[in-house]
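Pair request: fold both.
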Amino acid sequence: MNRGPERRAAVLIDYADGVLTLTKNNPDTGYGMTCAVLDAMEDVLLHAGDREDLRAVVIDAGGDGFHEAAVMVFELKPDYHDMDREDAREIVRRGQSLGELISSLPVPVIGLAAAGARGGGLEMMTRVDMLYCTDAALFCLPEVQLGFYPGWGGLQHGARMMQWRRAQEFILLGEEIDGREAERAGLVTRSFGSVEDMRARAAAVCKRLQYCSPHAVARVKAELRRVWREAVEVGEGRDYESHAEVMETRDFVKAMDALQKGRAWNYLKRVDEPPLATGRAFPQLEGVTAGAAPVE
């Protein structure tokens, strides 16, 4: 199902070819994390996983593609001088609620930060699965300068992604780094020389996900989340059940049948197609007969 853009509050929503794209559309606040943006994104993502043909979610920002900080801090009360401990807890709750929703989706979430991200905008990007930017992008967690605490994920997630010594300097000083440095430090997945190259990579990732078993992707993503939180022995013990549950979906039968015919199974279109470009082709296994493509 393909649908054109539709507007909900401060977010533009588009759904096409199994990809749900959310684009912040609030230039009056610099595409920051306002209450309206938080509400709209949460409302959409809460039910996004119900789509059987969903393969990826893309989170973008309008304008030049910069994700501004948590503007919602100043929307809680008319005068920020009156903010108290309960307001502080509410700020963290709102951000962590959306962050957990993003990271717990059963499909990969791709963040696009062409011009970079700051504060709460960057913290929300630490919750996506892949984050792409341009070399000229700028990233910063200025909370320590402003008397705040990076409680939306900048500390707990950002520090785990980055090299430890670099994370200490970056978070404790609130300094800016560009896209290339962010890639070297592990804060972003990849940085590109142009916006066009960045978007081309995101499109290629979404296309490739059509050829990945949605059941396998969902299970692997869930286990990747646990890698951060559990001892390796616990994860290895769960691998037995995870592998069995993924194979029980029989997705591997479709993929192997297509492979033995020199083709690749497209899980979105439910057909076999010419194989994806690869540097080394899969071998054709002797004694293995390809079955007919399953009818669904």
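--- second member of the pair ---
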Amino acid sequence: MISVRSFVIIGQPKIHRFQYLATAFISLLLMGLVYSWSLFADPIQQDFGWDSTQTSFIFTLSMIFMSIGMVVAGILEKHFSRRTLMVATGVLLGGGFIAAAFASNLLTMYVAYGAIASFGSGMGTDVVMATVLKWYPDKSSMASGGMLMGFGMGSFLLSPFVDMLLTTMGWRQTFILLGIAFIVIMVITAAIVHAPSSETERQLRQLVTAGSSKPVHNYRPAQMVGRPAFWYFFIWLILITSGGLALISQAVPAADAVLAVHPIGDAATMSLLATLAMGAVSLCNGFGRLLNGVVWERFGYRASVFGISIMFLASMLISGIAMQVNSYWLIVLGFVLLGLAYGGSMASMASMASEFFGPKHFAINYAISVLELIPSAFIGPMIISSVQQTTGSFITAFWIFLVFGVIGLGLAFIIREPRTPKEMRKAEYARERARKAQEIAVLTQQAALQFSSLHMADSGELYDPAQLRAYRELRKKLARAEYVAQTKPHSRKANVARYERQANQRFEEAAKKAQARAQRDQIRAMRADLQAQRAQLRFARANERAALTERTFRRYALKLARYDADAGTDSDVSAVDGVSTQA
């Protein structure tokens, strides 16, 4: 089927936008270190003598304040420039790490790392993503997945470097160095990344509107939270994210529990294998975000949601069986699937906020969606830690999360795009009709220009065949554009044959009518030319009569002057000439 984009050509300059995506990937890669609290927990616990129960709450606080930071960033973007917010993000994030380096008690660590640094990380993630996604309205899911891949893989890619710093410099100097790096990176990001101009954004939007017949509806936050589709997706995210956060917080102890029963190598080897299991979760967490963006972009939201639900269900089943039989490689497989599912769920939040509820209010809508991390950060780690303390094993926790997966798979069947409110449908319908009318007007104008090049042969009856064929092709495209404007999207594929017949009939009828109109126009033009020639002839004759009248008047005036001279009257012939000239 030929779409409007196939024959309405819009000239656009080449738009360079990859540098913004690459810069955002690097900045989010560094901000993803907030996820890596487990890297810093051991040396801090050894330094202060704290236990894991006290320090694990810092990770929960990080998830909470990261979500709050995103919401605040979405609100502040309406009042401050994005570059100002990026610099403020660097100050908060870097300042939080530097303040944590001078912490002397648990409360200071809660405030500095758990609140200030995480709040800055949430602000930076929201601002950077909202800015860069304005450059990718046609590939929003893939772009958001690529950026979030950096955020998810930060702990995996940077953990060797951070671990080296912790070993050589200590955790306090490492925090100071990382804080300075955060400030520098965010200042550089603010200098490079900016929103497109209004003209560039209009050209980018045409990539979406011209390439798809699906209308884009922009929901305000109040409208979004009032739609059932949002709450179905929100609950589904809580179920998947709870299991992901639970395993991220206890991946190394779970792997150690398996290796304790069936050891592989010496103690150093088992410690390395447990760390690799955690690395597999982090690596797949990042890769799953990009994979989900590609799947959502290519196959739609249903394939993405079902794929994540099935992987989460399979990961919990495999991990539970691995704990039963104490198989290290089987639990690594479960970790891999869970990392893909958890990373995909994180990326699906951005895709849902952009695709379901429109790009205009993406920053605040995405921030509201990320609030699901708050209950998830409590539910998941609380279940797995309490089960482990009560039973001494993680098996029951995996079965509980398996039930979460079954419920999530059931929700996947009822998650669908929101139905557009009535007033938005009316406004969108009016805009769509106006746009189609404008396109048809452009095509009609092109047809008129084609008519101007048609000419009749000497007999006055035949058109130039080449020009007539070009006109017929243009009329065929016009008929198809009219049909697309009047046909509902879901019925196009089922009516291709009927559409083709109607299109052929329309352009044949239009061609016949156009020929008749062209003949009438040519006849009118010939009549107009004839009338113009007659008017010119009448004007020439009027000028001749005027000249003759003037010569006659002068002749009689001269005779009158002679009579006056013979009679002795003092008459000035020149005066007579002046009167005649005025006459």
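Observation on the second member. The mean pLDDT is 77.
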